[in-house]
Amino acid sequence: MIDLSINFGGIKAPNPFWLASAPPTNSGYQIMKAFEAGWGGAVWKTLGVPVVNVSSRYGSVNYRNTKMMGFNNIELITDRPLADNLREIEEVKKYFPDHAIIASLMVESRAEWEQIIKDVENAGADGIELNFGCPHGMCERGMGSAVGQNPEVLKTIVGWVKEAANIPVITKLTPNVSEIVVPGLAAFQGGTDSISLINTIKSIVGIDLETYAPYPIVDGKGTNGGYCGPAVKPIAMNMLKDLAQHPEIGKVPLSGIGGIETWRDVVEFILLGATSVQVCTAVMHYGFGIVREMEAGLIQFMEDKGYNTIYDFAGKALPNVTEWKHLNLKHKVVAEINPDKCIGCELCYISCDDGAHQAISLSDDPLNRIPSIIEENCVGCNLCSLVCPVEDCITMVQKDDGTEHTTWNERTLNDDIPVTFDDDRAGGKGHYVPKPTDALKSKR
Amino acid sequence: MAEYKKPTTEAEFNKNFKQKNPLMNDTEAYYEASRCLFCYDAPCIQACPTSIDIPLFIKQIHTDNVTGASKTIFDSNWLGNACGIVCPTGVLCEGACVYNHQDVPPIQIGRLQNYATNKTIDADKVIFKVGEPTGKKIAIIGAGPAGIACACEARTLGYEVDIFEAKEKPSGLTVYGIAPYKITNEEVLKEVDYLQKQLDFKIKYNTKINSKEELSSLEKKYDAIFMGVGLGKTRELGLEGENKENVIGAVEFVEELRMKHHKLKVPKNVVILGGGNTAMDAASEVARMGARKTVLAYRNSKEKMGAYGFEYDLAISAGVDSLFNVTPIAIKGDKKVEGVRFAKTEMVDGKLKTNINNTFIVRCDMVIMATGQAKQGHLYDLIDDLEIDEKTRIKTNDEFQTSNPKYFAGGDAINGGAEVVNAAYDGKMAAQGIHQWLTK
Residue A231's closest CA among A206, A195, A196, A194? Predict the structure, then answer.
């Protein structure tokens, strides 16, 4: 029997699908609608000091026929009165006592933190999320990412909050740092119950070619916004991995955020150690109903694999994510083109010839558009299989017998560091590289 | 099978002759363009008679550089807009699209091309420059696609150009001879107008070059002459009753239809003779004009028809019936057509034999002969040393120069009847040939 319920560092929810603190969690109306649609939890749009917002707030990156592949915003924390938010938290909790409501908070002084924690606890919030990530507006006032980027301040504030709070505390981190482990460790040492990441990334999504202003444009000017959406998922997953693999930080539950839109994204985040996921952009694009696809896909995956809870597979990819120096230098794959599937676009040829290792050739017969792999030149880089528009037409085939294993780390330890360029593998010694002037010979 | 009501107004006519390749809107173009794979050494370019850099212009449409896309198109084909609409793309660029090998619909290249050029033409965007004047002059006979393309190219090379056109409108068959559901007169004329405004060549309408004196005068005044004269009237078959009232050539029928629209009278029962693309066009048009019975009759089997499969399908879908392996032996009737007597044919030892003992009559009120056009042989006879081949086509070398060095030629006059795109290519290349010859 599949049970999607979670206990995330003391916060219980019927499933791991949470709404991130953002415009979709701006009101009790929206959160009730979301819970009705199937979301298991919601992080309320950040409560804090009074703010004034600008008009024109979101910008997007469209790619090919995909709208909002990347998305950014310059909106601040909630501009609705605190009392209204608190009253609505209480009301939603009455209707949905088993769903998780987490109050995202952002204030400055210790006294303010203590007061607002008391307020949300009284309203019935199940947990607190500390917004140390907002990269625009609030940071200019010494809050948001200004805190997340300063480990000492971060640790101090987490300490204040933990002392004052009776409910679990999640610390939300900004990705606008060079090493995510540094603020992660500060939050851990401050005593946080759990960590969520990533907040948005500082970004400019585009420039208007008429006015030369960055999007979103506010009266002819713009500013860096917070980037999110599918485009940021790889960055988020890498940071999640960094925390999950850390011997200390990895002990606290991690909530994954960043471009999650489908069940596959959810499973990947869980495999990298997340035990709740938070979603914003996908909802801003498609509405709360998107959770149906996530839930159905997650259940199907768990049924297929025989898992009962998400804890059965949480973190299962972590042992396979290692450092480059531990990769097997004896492993060898070579591309293979299935001529029955090839449609003759020759993108593999040109991408390899111009963009990689000159390991694909064309037939001399112009009517035969099926390229051939030059096996001795193929370094197994995958590029051709990535550009090929046909499913399973180019596959990477293992050529070593799997018996040999050497890593850079082992070679270093054995004092076997190369001093000449004489590696006998493809790409090294014996790799055929055309002469520079061959570029001027017209092929086809 | 469609049933068409006889159109009595222009609106009804337009409904019956609904555009086969309607203009794309911005969204459709954006999404369609996004599907292009940007193939290396793209098969669509190879399949285009004018070698338009198709992946490039599609990418330009997708990045909202429509002017750039149009420039890419016109740089290869001066009639890029018309060709985007009337080209048989299914057997050319779109037929070569690699998506066909994946059972995915090919990119709608023709419609994307038309989307870009139409926008640029409507915006009257200036994208061409007249070349540095050479002080030399070229006369062009015929303002069809070959002549227009030759004029445009010659202007960019710095030549003065005068076109002599027998009819009152430019574009030749594009305006007079192509089925109205493929392209409208407005679309054709606005492209020529657009080109003419920027490149400033002159067209003398209603000026048929028809005599030795006229030709000698052109030879004296101009440094080179381009013949884009196309083909002539429908060839006579020498059939009994061929001169009866309501026996009309297909080219003449289509021309009348293109000019008169719903005002053209088409009777109830019509027989079309022929198996080429013109026959399909004429049959389809008759059906769309509300004829009760439209019968297409071809002397050989369906497989032997010269028409593209899609053209035949289009005629059938308009409600045309077809007869194969029948040959007309006489047109019956008093003064007017009342029917056609056909004889059955069959293949014997690779030759088509008529069985004169097996005949039948199809009753009809009109016969349209789509049995080929005559060549402009009378004109060719007036030009000194002009070599023509056994099919009365003008012979040219690779530079489109005829055996009389002052004369160049292209289009239907040299290929015996092909697509607009072939004529556009010939005209452009002939101008380059003239330039090479005059600067030698």
Answer: A206
